[in-house]
Amino acid sequence: MAFEITSDCISCGACVDVCPTGAINQGDEHYEIDKDVCIDCGACVDTCPSGAIIDK
After folding, report:
1. Structure pTM?
2. DSSP string over 22-50
3. Which of 23, 25, 26, 45 fits 38 for a cystine, CB–CB 3.0-4.6 Å?
């Protein structure tokens, strides 16, 4: 499974700080997860204050 950051993202950067692989980067409108780098650990999901990260 891969995680996805939805448009509910408030671009706070909390997920970036906890990602062990550096798979999360600022996109044009909000942060995005590089599915090729993501190891599906879920650390970002638990950290997101707006609930914008979903299991896809």
Report:
1. 0.89
2. --EEE-SSSEEE-TTT-----HHHHH-TT
3. 23
Contact 38, 25 (CB under 8 A): no
The domain locations on the chain are 3-51
Q: What's the residue count for the chain?
A: 56
Q: Say yes or no: domain 3-51 is CATH 3.30.70.20.
A: yes
- In tens digits, what is the pLDDT along the chain, a chain of 56 residues? 689 999 999 999 999 999 999 999 999 999 999 999 999 999 999 999 999 999 98
Instruction: Confirm if 42 and 18 have CB atoms less than 8 A apart.
Output: no
Q: Is the dihedral of CA 42, 3, 40, 1 positive or negative?
A: positive
